[in-house]
Amino acid sequence: MTTIYHNPACGTSRNTLAMIRNAGIEPTVIEYLKTPPDRATLVKLIADAGLTVRAVLREKCDPYESLGLKEDKWSDAQLLDFMDQYPILINRPFVVTELGTRLCRPSELVLEILPAAQRGAFSKEDGEVVITADGQRVK
User: Catalytic pick from 5, 6, 7, 10?
Assistant: First the structure.
């Protein structure tokens, strides 16, 4: 089973979802701004992806600046509290498959954990070719 914590307003998230589908997989799509992960799920996603809490914090949004989250004074627990209160602070997209969990930034990171190969050519929304017509990744 494949799950994506998705924001349809985010190009990286849309590209990631499209690559999952290009592998013939229809994932469970969780729009995390509408249905945020609970704290235990968020902690598990972060740990399973091998990241720190701060590495998952989305900096290019409000309330990151207004809360002063750039400062080192915040503990992991406090940062998680902020993410619970303001899910927009959770960077995206997280993808979970039987092969692992990744924060797919850039979107091509999803290819590391997909249980099926790409079925054909794929280009990102900006036109960047990621997968060739014969299903091979462009490096």
Answer: 10
Show the beta-strand stretches assigned E in 18-105: 28-31, 94-97, 100-103
CA 104 from centroid of its chain's CA atoms = 4
Q: Would you say how long the chain is, in residues?
A: 139
Q: What is the mean pLDDT of the chain?
A: 96
Does a structural domain hold residue 83? yes
Count up the domains in the chain and report the number: 1
Residue 134: per-residue pLDDT: 86
d(C-alpha 58, C-alpha 107), whole Å: 16
d(CA 60, CA 85): 17
Domain containing residue 70: CATH number:
3.40.30.10
pLDDT tens column, 18-73: 999 999 999 999 999 999 999 999 999 999 999 999 999 999 988 999 999 999 99
Answer whether residue 7 is part of any domain: yes
Q: Is 61 a catalytic residue?
A: no
